[in-house]
Specification:
The chain has three helices and nine strands; from the N terminus they run ββββααββββαβ. By secondary structure, it is of the alpha+beta class. It has a single domain, classed as PH-domain like (Roll). Strands 1-2-3-4-5 form a five-stranded antiparallel β-sheet. It is globular, with a radius of gyration of 14 Å.
Length: 146
């Protein structure tokens, strides 16, 4: 199932992206709004094969579909959900997947970069890049092939 982007109500939804921490994979649904990026915690799976949870990306997609029209203020009431003000974002960079690499999404912010990966190497990032360029015309949204 491909990642989905949706530009309904000034919101672009990027589904099934995950971050890698030293001990786990953190699944997040991303909602790009005009004034902020809302990061919805959708689950965590540990790197150890014995503790790894299957189907985490499908659950994340279902959660994103459920939250698609929920106001950001309501979403941010959950402790693990966060937002990044768009004023802190310097650039958004997407890298297409290849035979050896998964697609990558990097949100460059003041003080740190948020790096996400998509579970499917075949995922086409061009649709998301186009939607983000339209959402943030004054921000750098780049796409490159590996």
């Amino acid at each position: 199932m491909p990642s989905q982007t949706s530009a309904g109500e000034d919101r672009v939804w990027a589904s099934r992206w995950y971050r890698i921490t030293p001990y786990s994979f953190v699944q997040e649904e991303l909602f790009f709004e005009p004034d902020r990026i809302v990061r919805i915690f959708a689950g965590e799976s540990y790197k150890s094969f014995l503790l790894r949870r299957d189907g985490r990306d499908e659950y994340a997609n279902d959660l994103g579909e459920e939250y698609r029209t929920v106001p950001a203020e309501t979403l941010l009431e959950e402790e693990k959900n966060e937002s990044v003000p768009i004023g802190e974002v310097g650039a958004i960079r997407l890298t297409a997947g290849s035979l050896l690499r998964k697609p990558k999404l990097v949100i460059e912010t003041v003080g740190r970069d948020l790096t996400y990966y998509h579970p499917s190497r075949k995922h086409d990032v061009s649709e998301l890049a186009a939607a983000l360029r339209e959402q943030y015309p004054k921000r750098t949204v780049g796409i490159k092939s590996e």
